[in-house]
Amino acid sequence: MSSDDAYMAFLNKANADSSEGQAQTTQESSDILRTKTVDSSLSIPKPLKNIDAYYVSDTDEPFDPVVLKWDAAKDDTWPSIAELASLISESNDLSRSIESLPLTSFDPKDQYPEVLGAVRAAAAENNPDATQEAVELKVYRIEITTTRIEYWILALHAPEKKIVGLRAKAVES
Description:
five-stranded antiparallel β-sheet, Nuia, alpha+beta
């Protein structure tokens, strides 16, 4: 093969239709797992609306409110990992990507007291039987991809049969 042929092959490749790669990228992005944070029939509690905090990672994302219908909250019953997965996604594989974390693992340097306080306030809102100090928080780590992670800080709101909290998206490389 002559160098002219190699050069011509290079030029043809450089001038090829670039939309071919875009179609593949669009398909790949539609395959990325998406999680639901708010059930459309529920309103977001005021303490979760007013939060102005960012989770520090490679991308510093804001926290998103979480409000999910959960009838067993009236009995102070937390969802299992599989039940949580079905609440937030239609993917059957998600439960394998969820792990429960101790609160200290999520916030070892006490960077997010405002976040934790907002979740506690949302769980105690309109709940005469709850005080913010007594609200139990749970943290879940969900691996969306090898580098995309979501952290969910959740609490039960028994009177309104729901789960309230905040979700943080993170990129961990």
